[in-house]
């Protein structure tokens, strides 16, 4: 669970820095959003990171096993016997 909170702090810090740069240098005086909207957006980003990060770290073992099976890593030797593959390179005998 602590991984989710570290991820939350990092993503939220990057988001707030990007919004500050946008507020300071990109937006004109009329386009600037109020602080209330910024806080609401930060809470939405935070909740999305917590839900997504919790789901990702909960299913991490399943995802690793799934991608190992697809990419033939680690478990690839169990799926294909690479030592005894028969390859025919001469003319067929029929």
Topology:
Layout (H helix, E strand, L loop, with lengths): L1 H25 L8 H24 L1 H12 L4 H4 L15
Overview of this structure, please?
- The protein has helices spanning 2-26, 35-58, 60-71, 76-79.
- It is mainly alpha-helical.
- It has one domain (2-82).
- Helix 1 (2-26) packs antiparallel against helix 2.
The helix fraction, in percent, is 55-70%
Order of helices and strands: HHHH
Number of E-type strands: 0
Count of domains? 1
Average the pLDDT over all residues and give the rounded result.
81
The radius of gyration is: 25 Å
Structural class: mainly alpha
Shape: elongated
Main β sheet profile:
none
Hey, roughly how much beta strand do the residues contain?
Answer: under 5%
- Report the uncertain regions: none
Distance between the termini: 64 Å
Key descriptive features of the protein:
94 residues; mainly alpha; 4 helices; 69% helix; elongated
How would you briefly describe this protein structure?
69% of the residues lie in helices and 0% in strands. It is mainly α. The chain has one domain (2-82).
